[in-house]
Structures are given as C-alpha cells and as structure tokens.
Amino acid sequence: MTAAGPGFGLRVRDVRTEFREYRYRTPYKFGGVPVDRATITEVAIDVETRDGHRATGVGAMPLGNVWAFPARDLPYDSTLEAMRALAERIAGIVRSCTESAHPLEFWHLLEPEFLAAARAESARLHLAVPIPKLATLVAASPFDAALHDACGKALARSSFLTLSPELVGHDLSRYLGRDFTGVDLQAVVRATPAATVPMFHSVGGSDPLTDADAEAANVPHDGLPRTLAEWIRFNGLWNIKIKLQGESLDWDVERTLAVDRIARGTRPEAAWRYCVDFNERCPNVAYVLEYLERVRTASPECLAGILYVEQPTARDLAALPRNDMHAAADLRPIVIDESLTDLESLLMARDLGYTGVALKACKGQSHSLLMAAAAARHDMFVCVQDLTCPGAALVHSAGIAAWVPGVAGLEANARQYVPEANRGWEERIPGIFRVTDGSLHTATLAERPGLGAAG
After folding, report:
1. How far apart are CA 9 and CA 196, in angstroms?
2. 13, 201, 317, 333: least surrounded by Cβ within 10 Å?
3. Domain boundaries, the chain
4. Model-level pTM greater than 0.90?
5. CA 149 → CA 43, 47, 161, 195, 353, distances in Å?
6. Which CATH superfamily is domain 10-174 in?
7. Strand, coil or helix: what is 167?
8. Mean pLDDT across the chain, nearest whole number?
C-alpha cells in the first residue's frame, strides 16, 4: 500500500526507543487485578519534510499490559514481554517505511503491518492467547504520537492544527468510509484548546478511604496524601473516578456511597461528579440497572452525581448473549472503552445502546482523532481516559481532552500511583502537573509546538 495524494509529507529518517521501569507508590486495583509497576515506552523519531526541513518528534506511553492484554492463562511477565517485543517490531516497521506522508496517512498505511507483526510475535512466542488488537494499538501509540509531534514541530504549530485536508492529503472518507466524504478533520477539533479540563481522581479497588485504611495498606508517609479526603484538599478535587468490582453489588453500592460521603463531607460546596468504572466485570446489564437503582434509593444526590458508567460488561461486544445497554443508558450515559478499537466497534456499541466513547492517547493520536470525529457525527458523549500516563504521555492525553470539543474531563492518575515518573514535569508544565483547583490548565498547549511536551 502506498500513500495517495500530496498532503504534507514527512519521511522517517530514524527511530529510537527506550523502555523505562517504575514501581508504583501504592498498588492500583482495577478489573480485579492489582498493578504495582509500569513499563513506559519512550520513542523519538527523526523526520525530514519534502523541502528538506528536519524535526524530531517524541512520544511516550505505558505498555499497560494488564489492561490491554488481560490473558488469564498468561502471567504478567509474558504479556509484558510480548508487548515490549511487539513495540520493537513496530519500531522496525516505522524505521523501514519509505513513504512521505502525513502522520494520519502513516497510521492508515502501517496499522495493517502492526497487526501482522502482532500475529507474527504471538506465533514466535508460542502464546496460548494471541496479542489482541487493543494491545497492538497501545504498543504502537507512542510511535504514532512521535510522528504527530514531529509534524507539528516541522510546521511550528500544535499537532492539533495540522489536520486539514490540504495537509493530511484527504478528507475523512479515506479513513472512515464514504459517510465521511467531505468531512474536514480540522473542523472536528477546537480552533484553540480549552483553557481548563476537569480532572478525575481515581479511587482504585484497594485504595484507602480513611486513616485506618491507609495504615492497614502501609501507604507511605512521603508528603503526598494518604486518604481520599487528603487528596480532595490537596488537589481541590470535584471529580472522582470510582473503580468497582462488578462481582458484588453490596460492595459496589457501598463503595460508591462511601466515596460520595467522604467527598461531600470534605468539600460540601463542590458540585460533585463521578464516573463509575466496572472494567467490564459486570455479568450483564441487569447488574448495572440494579446497581443504579440501589444507589438512587440510598442517595438520589449521589446518583445525580454519576456523570457516566464506563464499560460495564465484557469487551467482546459480539459475544453471546449480547448485552443491550439501552435501558441503562436511559439512566446514565454508558461509555465504551476497552471495546473501542475501530469504527466498526464504535458502531456496534452504538447499536447496543452505548451512548458515549472514551478516547485514550494509549490507542494512538490518529485513532483518538478518528474516533472523536465518529463520536461527533453520531452525537455521542465523549470523555478522555488514562492509562496511568506520566510525563509526556499525560501531556498527550491532556491535549486530546483540551482540543476535542465536548470532553467531560480527563482521568489523570499517574500523580497518585507513579509520581516518580512525573519528576521534573511540574516545573516544565505546571498547569498540567500542579493541580490545585481540580482542573488541568491547558490553554498554554496552543503555544507549544507538536503535542506540547517540548517547549
């Protein structure tokens, strides 16, 4: 496959990758699994424009294998090694590409090769469960980010201002089908980034709520908050993401109500908003309906604060019996996350009653932009979610949240679980890394070239 149309062409000159390892300050439990470490892929790509101008783009993203490759038959180290090996294969694919193209066109041309590489790596490692598409997107995302970053730097503007058909070389029909004929991707994003983005604080499945919980969990006395109330005061919070089990209604309802009690007791003046995330653990939609009803019965105010419900049932939307979400979506927006890997999955989710989409930098800048366009066309609720993204990865996520219209907020939890990986960034971009009023201050992203991680 070759790039078609002129557009703004970049040619890859070199690709460099590095993997950094971090331990979590405290474990983050989601989907029934505690996570206590992260492997971050850092990528630098040297490019040259058609007129000989050179630039270097950077991208970074956690491999997030527990979330992206949840194989019960494979240990953590096996899925991590598979994704790391796949990232190295992807580096070779990008390095050997001889096309001159816009980053969006690179994604279109190379994604089939990335998926083929995942199949080849699965066979080489004799994996009992092959590397899924979601894990492939995550492994490829820092390379895609680096190309978009380089494009913005080459044009001395934000990467979010490099999306016109004249620069891309095509309208969106090339990437999303004839229903998008004539649709300009540049018109899908804002002309300038939002000045602020509401930040959602994460309450993991094992996170301490009280002093007694913190002592029992051996949360370190290191100057950072140890309880939910302390985090609320420390960051001026008014948005919370609550991780739930999907296996015990009593626990899920009480956990939600406990978080709400602490939040309102700590900042009674705040207009509290919550997202509840079952990480696909609910057995069926009936569980979701009963959960919402029990929360409503106990506290109508708490239910009113639930902004949306994230991916309550299994990510395989085609599996039988299918989980129709229409009844639940009548009560609160139901957002697709793990299932969202392409336009087909978005449309399938919509048919099943999902009313919102979670955009994630870890699935790629190109993927996020295309899904934002599809969500806008189908009038779907939009939020931006995290993969415990520190440093450049958080800047990337914040950029998506700031430039895409209608975003409800951004989960940003690296400051909680892996603060070591954010070291130095508070001085470089304080508006994003120093949170005092529950929001990320993102207006300055308009002044920063590329994806904004570099000045």
Report:
1. 33
2. 13
3. 10-174, 196-447
4. yes
5. 11, 11, 11, 21, 35
6. Enolase-like, N-terminal domain (3.30.390.10)
7. helix
8. 96
